[in-house]
Amino acid sequence: MSQEVEHVECLIIGSGPAGYTAAIYAARADLKPVMYTGMEPGGQLTQTTEVDNFPGYPNGITGPEMMEDFRKQAERFGTDVRFGYVSSVDFSSLPHKVVVDDIKTITADTVIISTGATAKWLGLPSEQKYNGFGVSACAVCDGFFFKGQDVAIVGAGDTAAEEATYLAKLCKKVYMLVRRDEFRASKAMVHRVMNTPNIEVIYNTETKEILGNGKNVTGVKVVNNQTGAETDIPVEGFFVAIGHKPNTDIFKGWLDMDDTGYLKTVPGSTLTNVEGVFASGDVQDSYYRQAVTAAGSGCMAALDAERYLAAKEHDVKVVS
Ligand code: NDP
């Protein structure tokens, strides 16, 4: 049960690129932001190795180091970064109420939600073992490391289809492992896959194990779910593209979401259906899902929050 109550002007939930960028802008606008990092400070990027596609790092940087830089920059302008997990919210009246770690209640004039999304994994121990050493859930982030090599990708939705064609431009051969005898992806995407000569689609196939030499991935053991036949396919990279889950469970019943749970925002803004609550980053973006796009929308969220507060101060009604 909540005991202490603290009031803040701007509360940021989540500490990925969106949350930290929102924090930098909010702090510089003197909103004195308080950030709760969640259980994984730095978010999804702390699980990656090299990040080569974020502008400003000409020699690349590791994901954890980059998120350290983000944190330091946010703190430099006075963001109060706290380790803690938002366990519930109450957006029924102003100011908004947010409970942290089930014990502490915060009231906030504005809330910026940047809780991100979590990539779904197959759940194999070998997948975990080689994560970052040949196993990846992001072709756009990591495909480059497999230039000229053979890779496999699992999944049959639009993401898998798009990532397979992306990988096909870089890699020698892409094996696409589809668990049913058909795709879930749209016809147009399937058409693209089928017309890419170096993608081989293998239907009715599930991943049994990712094979490795202790350091890197060397192959994948697959099983045909119709015949039970097992095959080892030699590959250097293994990509998982079986969907993401947005981290929005605590907002159910308060905020509008799509069927998958992504928060809905007013197009071209970060406004949610609740006054003073803004959403940025992967939690509201199932499409681009890049660190740099998340950072951009974090900036938008802080500007939206700042403008909302300014309008309120001048008694102008902002309708979301
Ligand atoms: P989806 O949920 O659409 O697809 C997930 C895919 O992964 C399915 O084919 C599913 O198989 C497969 N899968 C799930 N679990 C396993 C498993 N354990 N083993 C093997 N395969 C598995 O996720 P996406 O990320 O592809 O797409 C999410 C949303 O984003 C969709 O609405 C999509 O249309 C949209 N999107 C649109 C794009 C575009 O328009 N260009 C690009 C990317 C995404 P099965 O089919 O058998 O269930």
Automatic annotation (TrEMBL):
Keyword terms: FAD, Flavoprotein, Oxidoreductase, Redox-active center
GO terms under biological process: removal of superoxide radicals
Pfam families: Pyr_redox_2
Listed InterPro entries: FAD/NAD-bd_sf, FAD/NAD-binding_dom, Ferredoxin-NADP_redctase_2, Thioredox_Rdtase
UniProt keyword annotation of S-adenosyl-L-methionine present: no
SUPFAM superfamilies per record: FAD/NAD(P)-binding domain
EC number(s) reported in the record: 1.8.1.9
Superkingdom, taxonomy of origin: Bacteria
Stretches that traverse the bilayer: none
Required cofactor(s): FAD
Location of the FAD/NAD(P)-binding domain: 10-298
GO cellular component: cytoplasm
GO molecular-function terms, A-Z: thioredoxin-disulfide reductase (NADPH) activity
Catalytic reaction annotation: [thioredoxin]-dithiol + NADP(+) = [thioredoxin]-disulfide + NADPH + H(+)
Family membership: Belongs to the class-II pyridine nucleotide-disulfide oxidoreductase family.
Cross-referenced NCBIfam families: TRX_reduct
Assembly information from the UniProt record: Homodimer.
Record-given protein name: Thioredoxin reductase
Organism in which the protein naturally occurs: Pedobacter hiemivivus
Source lineage: Bacteria, Pseudomonadati, Bacteroidota, Sphingobacteriia, Sphingobacteriales
